[in-house]
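Re: the 112-residue chain
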Amino acid sequence: MGKMMERELKRGTLELILLKLLAEKDMYGYQISSTLEERSGNQFQIKEGTLYPVFYRLEDAGFIEARWETQGRGKPRKYYSLTGEGAFHLEELMKEWKDFVRVVSTLLESEE
């Protein structure tokens, strides 16, 4: 995939993907980044400079909540969790995404 198209697709789907991961369980930033890389076979790598502004935007919108937690003697980590409003927003985004994919697939498969 061309780098320009790949970058735009990642930017356009990052909110959806983050909300989906947080619907599975509460996570901290590095854990989310690692999970994205692992599940995508290293095709979806995100820098902190990209990830955290999305977290702040989602938090401001009321879709996620953040809390600090320290496990054992480890350093404090900021965990993010999905709110009820975030779960509803995720459902809406998933419907939009599936409709979009269906339409694009239809257009790409259509014959002239």
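DSSP finds four helices and three strands in the chain.
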